[in-house]
Design brief:
Two copies of one chain form a homodimer. Chain A has 138 residues and is α+β, with helices and mostly antiparallel strands. Chain A is 27% helix and 22% strand. Chain A has three helices and five strands.
Chain lengths: 138, 138
């Protein structure tokens, strides 16, 4: 029996930059300079819901949420963005592949206090900007 | 030293009905018949972020997310709502008290594929309707 292989959804690949692999997930920098925004994608094929993961993998996902929560604070500091709240969410209404957003928010951000998903249009990083941010985690 | 006491935020109290306490959280039925929607509130004082919880409590929160994910499917069946996706999210931009939403979604729901938070106005349950739904979990 062949195990299905993890393949990153092309929409996630196109809208974010790989930082590294954590205990279960690939952590990626969302290409949107409006918010310090990381995306965790469990490197397991054919999962759509958190409860589709084994309990062991759910625990590893939680560990990665902790790690990403600290990483997004580092990112926010480099982007001169004051973190007042984290938003940690699995929606997946558009991209079916299981992924969890970890986003820094404050009351001066463009969508506050509403959710960021579907709000306006992504503002991509400028030339070289994302390399500087990715280097934070090297 | 007095330990701070858990007190439910009055806005959460006013917009939802208590179902019961789980391993860490109070699980409540959101008073909005547009979606099968549960809210988990860790019964621990003065927490705003998932990472503000101890690791043991984070693990209990994860267990409660699993329980609530199954409960929301039961709720959806009773509301004749086909579950195509769960949305599991801690935002907390408006109500600071740590809480996690567990919401059933499908491509016929009013906000699909956008997020539900801040979308239109809550449609409260009709007289007796919420009792029938709360009774599902007795």
């Amino acid at each position: 029996m062949n195990m299905p292989t993890f393949i990153l959804d092309p929409r996630i690949a196109a809208s974010s930059y790989l930082i590294r692999s954590l205990s279960l997930c690939q952590v990626r920098l969302q290409n949107d300079r409006r918010w310090p925004w990381l995306v965790l994608i469990p490197e397991v094929a054919d999962r759509r819901e958190i409860i589709d993961l084994s309990e062991a993998d759910q625990t590893r996902l939680l560990e990665d949420v902790r790690t990403a929560s600290e990483m997004v604070k580092t990112l926010a500091a480099a982007m001169d963005f004051e973190v007042q709240k984290l938003n940690v969410a699995n929606l997946g209404n558009i991209v079916a592949q299981l992924h969890v957003h970890v986003i820094a928010r404050n009351d001066q951000d463009p969508a506050w206090p509403g959710p960021v998903w579907g709000f306006g249009t992504a503002v991509p990083f400028e030339a070289g900007e994302q390399e500087k941010l990715l280097n934070l985690f090297k």
